[in-house]
Amino acid sequence: MSTAELTPPQAALWADRAGLSLAPGRHAAVAATANHIHSVVAVLRELDYGDTPPAAAYRAGEGRTDAAV
Known about the structure:
By secondary structure, the protein is mainly alpha-helical. It is built from two helices and no strands.
């Protein structure tokens, strides 16, 4: 996966390819937001979930009710 940051012209190009109307003054803000989201996702991908069961194993309402708050 590329670690290069999205530039404002690239943000404009991808918005156009997705059929989104993006005002020229918004290119830099959209690129900065996309770069921030990418950095957060990159950190999440590095986490070791170890023995964490998949979400399908969770059953709502079957939790313990005797825990102290």
